[in-house]
Amino acid sequence: MTRALVVTGGGGVGKTTVSAALAVAASRAGLRTLVVTVDPAKRLASALGIALTSEPSPHPEEPQLWAAMLDATASWREVARRHADPEVTERLVDNEFFVAATSHFPASQSYAAAEQAATYLDARAWDLVIVDTPPASGGIDFFTAPAQMADLVGGRLLRWLTGARLPGRRFLFNRTAKPMLRLADQVMGANLLERIAEFLMDLRTTYDGVAKRARQIERHMRTASTLVVTTSEPAPLREAVRFFRALPEVASPPAAVVFNRALPETWIGAQAPPGSDVNLAENLERWAAESFRQRTARREFGERYETSIATIPWQSHPPTDRDALAAMVESAQGLPPLW
Ligand SMILES: Nc1ncnc2c1ncn2[C@@H]1O[C@H](COP(=O)(O)OP(=O)(O)OP(=O)(O)O)[C@@H](O)[C@H]1O
Ligand SMILES: [Mg+2]
């Protein structure tokens, strides 16, 4: 059976780095592991050492490691292809409103990532699929994206515009929407009405497929293990809190909350030897205070949300190769067994 590990959390906390590091560690522990990264920094991609495309590629030197990258545009084409007739798919992906909706719909990248991940899980070709999540998803949004997507294509707005049952094209808009769009056509001088009508109709035909797929993805999400990555800064911590508030509906409790870029606890109370340079003494005092603040934030979080807390130390140099990535996992404290 393929196990899924979703690595989520606020923007910039280290999700992609942690996903890659766990993937190297898991593959070296003997599991056939696929990591699906989202927009990895160049340095990280070269540290991993695999040409990243939307198709999983095996690592040339790590026999159990595969990696793929989420390509949101390609994934959307896949989504359309899967849920619409071929002719409709072509029209949809060419339609400017489809392009706009898929790039501006807030849950769009998350949904594309979730669909892609679900496809890999269904393939049953790996023991473990590690799913990095897009920055915009801010933790919980990755899990709520399928439902939001089903709402988008089957929701009230679309039904309001296209009628309760799938209507013929010429009955498309109700009396309120039509004059407004006519006016837009006159003002903008384009056949917007026709293009929007086409888009909405085509989108509407995908509803059954999307709704069914959304339910399958949600099942995968509920059974996946989750790691919430954060730092002890207020903004990422707020995302972690949002995750816990929305949890019961969409996912199982996380295996752990990982505080990344943690300063060593041994720095708490560090003091410069008597007679040291005054700048050095001041510096040590500041880092001791910061280390104390971080530990307090972790403890408070763990107690309030009754969750396991792990830490990954702050590295003075970002990992530049796979050994350094694996070492990052070894230096982690409090990580529960994940495979
Ligand atoms: N433990 C660490 N110590 C020092 N630097 C780290 C650590 N973990 C990650 N970083 C650095 O933090 C930066 C952000 O990391 P990363 O891209 O993995 O975050 P992310 O959560 O995926 O970001 P985004 O939300 O933009 O996708 C990178 O420069 C990375 O090298
Ligand atoms: Mg990232």
Short overview:
With about 350 residues, this protein is of the alpha/beta class.
Comma- or semicolon-separated keywords:
339 residues; alpha/beta; Rossmann fold; eight-stranded mixed β-sheet; 8 strands; elongated; binds adenosine-5'-triphosphate; binds magnesium ion
Structure, explained:
- The structure is a single chain.
- α1 (15-28) packs across α14 and α3 (72-83) packs antiparallel against α4.
- It is elongated and about 80 Å long.
- α13 (278-305) links the parallel β7 (256-262) and β8 (309-313).
- Helices cover 55% and strands 12% of the residues.
- It has one domain (3-267, 274-330): P-loop containing nucleotide triphosphate hydrolases (Rossmann fold), CATH 3.40.50.300.
- Strands 3-4-2-5-1-6-7-8 form an eight-stranded mixed β-sheet, with helices on both faces.
- The mean pLDDT is 86.
- 40% of the residues are buried.
- It has helices spanning 15-28, 42-48, 72-83, 86-94, 96-104, 108-123, 141-154, 156-162, 177-188, 192-205, 207-223, 234-250, 278-305, 322-330; strands spanning 3-9, 33-37, 57-58, 65-69, 128-132, 225-230, 256-262, 309-313.
- The protein is α/β, with parallel strands linked by helices.
- It binds adenosine-5'-triphosphate and magnesium ion.
